[in-house]
Amino acid sequence: PFFTTTRGRGGTGLGLHIVFNLITQKLKGSIHCDSQKGKGTTFMISLPHTVEPD
């Protein structure tokens, strides 16, 4: 579900995947992305006030 524009130019395309997994699995939060061509991209990250131990 993730997209990279730097394939073949040094980027691995794993950045958002790592962030998504960290936020949703380890921190029990959520991440939302809103992108508009010519305007930019906004990421909203929501985290719980407390994190329960594994």
UniProtKB/TrEMBL annotation:
Domain of life: Bacteria
EC number(s) on file: 2.7.13.3
A GO biological-process term: phosphorelay signal transduction system
Enzyme class, UniProt record, top EC level: transferase
Keywords associated with the record: ATP-binding, Kinase, Nucleotide-binding, Transferase, Two-component regulatory system
Domain Histidine kinase: 1-51
One function term, GO molecular function aspect: protein histidine kinase activity
Short name of one Pfam family: HATPase_c
Gene3D superfamilies: Histidine kinase-like ATPase, C-terminal domain (3.30.565.10)
Catalytic activity: ATP + protein L-histidine = ADP + protein N-phospho-L-histidine
SUPFAM superfamilies linked: ATPase domain of HSP90 chaperone/DNA topoisomerase II/histidine kinase
Matching InterPro entries: HATPase_C_sf (IPR036890), HATPase_dom (IPR003594), His_kinase_dom (IPR005467), Sig_transdc_His_kin-like_C (IPR004358)
Protein name: histidine kinase
Organism: SAR324 cluster bacterium
